[in-house]
Design goal:
This protein is α+β, with helices and mostly antiparallel strands and 130 residues long. It has eight helices and five strands; from the N terminus they run E-E-H-H-H-E-H-H-E-E-H-H-H. The strands form two sheets. It has a three-stranded antiparallel β-sheet. The protein has a two-stranded antiparallel sheet with strand order 1-2.
Length: 130
């Protein structure tokens, strides 16, 4: 809860209306999965694994299920031998493209963030700092 005054309590999602969106879209693996599906189109599980090399198969499965539940991804099962499963971004997921593009444009500032961190870490801590 967020306290606006001594007596008013506001739920965090009302204090910051984008908070639920950030929680939904920017969880650890959601962004890379949606990015890959948006950039490369329909993918099989193995193709996603190859493109996102640092994700374990278990976590990829969990995230894909959650993304399907949230309406960002559609899963298509082809009853062949061996069975084939493909994942594709939905229109809802594709709607995040401009948001991702804006963040990609902003990413040119990462050098400034690194510089700010270096500057901060190089400072001597003040005696009053806790």
């Amino acid at each position: 809860m967020v306290f606006v005054s001594d007596t008013t309590v506001v739920p965090p999602e009302l204090a910051c209306p984008i908070s639920p969106v950030v929680d939904l879209v920017f969880s650890r693996w959601t962004t890379p999965i949606l990015w890959v599906l948006n950039e490369f189109g329909r993918q099989r599980f193995v193709e996603l694994e190859r493109r996102i090399t640092t994700i374990s198969p278990k976590v990829l499965t969990q995230r894909l299920r959650q993304l399907e539940r949230d309406g960002f991804v559609v899963r298509t099962y082809h009853p062949e031998v061996p069975p084939r499963v493909e994942y594709e971004i939905t229109d809802l997921g594709r709607g995040l493209g401009p948001l991702f593009a804006s963040i990609a444009e902003w990413s040119v500032n990462l050098d400034k963030v690194e510089q700010a961190r270096s500057d901060y870490d190089a400072r001597k801590p003040s005696p009053r700092a806790r």
